[in-house]
Amino acid sequence: MLLFFRELTHGVQGCEMEPKTINPYTREIRTLMYHRIVEHGESSEGTAPYLNAGLFRRHLKLLDRMGYTAITLRDHKLICEGELYAPSKPIIITFDDGYLDTYQVAFPILQEFGMRAVVFVVGDRRITTNTWENASNTPPIPLMDAKHLLELHDAGFEIGSHTMTHKYLTKLTPEEAWEEISRSRMVLEIMLNSPVLSFAYPFGVLRPEIKKLVRDAGYEFACATSSGPQRLDKDYYEIRRIVIANDNGLLNFFMKVLGPYVPYRWVVSEVKRILGKK
Q1: What is residue 99's DSSP assignment?
Q2: 223 vs 266, which has greater pLDDT?
Q3: d(Cα 84, Cα 89) in Å, to the nearest integer?
Q4: What pLDDT does residue 251 have?
Q5: What is the dihedral of CA 260, 263, 265, 271, to 10 degrees?
Q6: What is the pLDDT of residues 201-228, one digit of tens each?
Q7: CA 164: distance to chain centroid?
Q8: DSSP calls for 231-256
Q9: Share of the chain above pLDDT 70, in %
Q10: Roughly how many angstroms between the first and final C-alpha of the chain, as a whole number?
Q11: What is the pLDDT of residue 151?
């Protein structure tokens, strides 16, 4: 759906970025997490979740017909600051890792529906394939290079950081983690000539001290995977996402987006967390 925002907001409900006044703005903003979108008949060779291009198109067609508007995290910030109109049914689409097929396959399909996304990529531009999967003997899968990222950026997509080299941050020393987190933002900002506001934790792994490093590095948003509160605005440094994987047919996708999936997953994770403390 084309990005026509329907309600002018000068600070809105669901925003904790110093709103000026309160206007209706949904608190139920779902954030979707994709990795690879592959052509029809192509199999995924990596461990990252993938989706067939035809099914991905049906996902977007469903969102479009139901009146959803795809916004970025940067859009959300501007809405909260009163700089953009708020859509009545926003949704955030994200892609992790920066695979080349995000540009070759997903990008044209998103453009068909006038939709944009947030794409998280590694800062080290010398990394051209999914080297973080080497231990699993995964064949190399190409990543986007600078010209692809600049084209996405120019088309209104948000480019976010996925660290410098996609390492497990919780396995690093504080100094190493800081280098991965802060340097990637600096490198991407120089490449894009634009601020980088968002971050995604590699493998969805984090802990409080890592979140603090992300905040201290100047990011305003950080996406987790299956951790974090139900509502986007409750913790901008642990945004819970809905993982869209290989087996997410149209009905399954519908239930994840519109059904009680997020509250259910939140309850499950809380129970596991509580039991894990005993």
Answers
A1: B
A2: 223
A3: 14
A4: 83
A5: -140
A6: 999 999 999 999 999 999 999 999 989 9
A7: 17
A8: SGGG-TTSB--EE--TT--HHHHHHH
A9: 79
A10: 47
A11: 98
What CA–CA distance (Å, rounded) separates 80 from 13?
8
Tokens found for residue 137: 């003997």
Reading the block at residue 172, the tokens are 């690093």
The answer to whether residue 268 scores a pLDDT higher than 90 is: no
State which H helix or E strand residue 14 sits in. none
Beta bridge partners of 32: 93, 242
Tokens found for residue 166: 């996609």
86's tokens: 């708020």
Answer for the pair 54, 245: CB distance below 8 angstroms, yes or no. Answer: no
Nearest Cα to Cα of residue 58 among 40, 43, 46: 40
Q: Which helix (H) or strand (E) holds 129?
A: none
Tokens found for residue 70 = 């795809």
**pLDDT above 60 for 81:** yes
Q: Would you state the torsion angle of the CA atoms of residues 141, 147, 153, 155, taken in this order, to the nearest 10 degrees?
A: -100
Sign of CA dihedral 216, 217, 219, 225: negative
Pick the CATH number of 30-250 from 3.40.50.880, 2.40.50.140, 3.30.565.10, 3.20.20.370: 3.20.20.370
- What is the pLDDT confidence band of residue 254, given thresholds at 50, 70 and 90? confident
Amino acid found at 132? W
Are 86 and 16 in contact by the 8 Å Cβ rule? The answer is no
- Domain parsing of the chain, residue ranges: 30-250
For the cut 80, the answer to whether the pLDDT of residue 136 exceeds it is: no
**Residues 217, 136: Cα–Cα separation, whole Å:** 31
pTM: 0.86
Residue 259 to residue 253: CA distance in whole angstroms = 9
H/E stretch holding 121 reads strand 118-121
Question: Residue 19: what pLDDT?
Answer: 41
